[in-house]
Design a protein that fits this description.
The protein is α/β, with parallel strands linked by helices. The longest helix is centred in the middle third of the chain and has 14 residues. A 6-stranded mixed sheet has the order 6-7-8-3-9-10, sandwiched between helices. Helices cover about 40% and strands about 25% of the residues. The chain has a domain of about 190 residues: Rossmann fold. The chain binds adenosine-5'-diphosphate and magnesium ion. The site of adenosine-5'-diphosphate (ADP) has 12 residues, from β2 and α2.
Length: about 270
């Protein structure tokens, strides 16, 4: 291993990509996230785990400010991405969302062709050349492991694809605008096992180039994919750290209870 490479590793550890500082998010009077502080490292998969309603989606949507679209939401604290506060009033929210691609629970294909779905974001960002778009569409469909299945019907409506194919198409569409971070909100939960496995495999490949933050309630999935784990419970950050530590040697009793499946999903603290 050469010295340069080692230097790079050290830097990656020293400069986390996403820094959350005292983040509190409330819907009306209901506090969904309570004073969360955490650093999310680059080029690895971070899994956010915890029982339903604990604030996983809220945390994920805070990262690209989709949370702003909810009624009566208040956000306190800071989220720094590459050192910049994304809640600063001067932040360009559309540039932020381009940087932070979101893959939601159910694939949301646009009512247009397979080709146009992938080209959509690029066209918005001003790419017009047909040849460039053709190249991007092929590259991203290959990258999402969908090219072989759709290359002969790029002009047919995306809605005709199976749900598993649609989710891979959404991944291709997200990757086409060259995000820096991929946010996944239980992105395999609507998929059959084979399609889910394909998305999982893709994530493992993509982590070489992106930070991936993945909400999952499937502990086995966190074990398969995560390098780093964040455990939330009732809006509070209970425990976080390298996946092996949190999943195999949790420090907190609540984490142990959750992982062992003996978790009572009630509202008591
Ligand atoms: P999770 O993804 O872990 O299931 P969420 O982040 O969706 O949790 O929700 C956290 C808490 O915030 C829950 O109690 C939920 O009911 C509440 N909540 C989520 N979205 C809204 C909203 N738009 N308005 C009011 N309360 C909400
Ligand atoms: Mg959720």
């Amino acid at each position: 291993m050469n010295v340069e490479y080692r230097m790079e590793e050290i830097q990656l550890e020293a400069f986390p990509h996403i820094q959350v500082q005292h983040l509190t998010v409330a819907y009306g009077g209901h506090v969904a996230l309570d004073d969360i502080s955490i650093d999310i490292p680059e080029r690895c998969i971070t899994a956010i785990i915890g029982p339903s309603g604990c604030g996983k989606t809220t945390l994920l949507k805070s990262f690209n400010r989709l949370i702003d679209l909810q009624d009566e939401v208040t956000v306190k604290g800071r989220i720094l991405i590459d050192g910049e506060d994304i809640y600063d009033p001067r932040t360009d929210v559309s540039a932020l969302r381009k940087k932070m691609g979101l893959l939601s629970q159910r694939p949301q294909v646009l009512p247009m062709s397979i080709y146009d779905n992938v080209a959509y974001g690029c066209r918005i960002h001003g790419i017009k050349s047909r040849r460039t778009l053709d190249k991007i569409v092929e590259r991203e469909l290959r990258s999402a492991s969908l090219w072989e299945e759709v290359k002969d019907r790029l002009r047919s409506p995306a809605a005709r694809l199976s749900i598993g194919q649609q989710q891979r198409l959404c991944l291709a569409r997200g990757l086409a605008v060259e995000p820096e971070v991929i946010l996944g909100d239980e992105p395999t939960s609507a998929l059959d096992p084979l399609s889910a496995e394909r998305i999982e495999r893709k994530f493992l490949e993509l982590k070489k180039d992106y930070a991936i933050v993945l909400v999952t309630h499937i502990i086995r999935q966190a074990r398969r994919l995560a390098d780093y784990v964040i455990f939330l419970y009732l809006g509070k950050l209970i425990e976080h750290g390298p996946a092996d530590e949190v999943l195999n040697r949790p420090k907190h009793a609540k984490t142990r209870a959750y992982l062992s499946g003996h978790f009572i999903e009630d509202a008591s603290p």
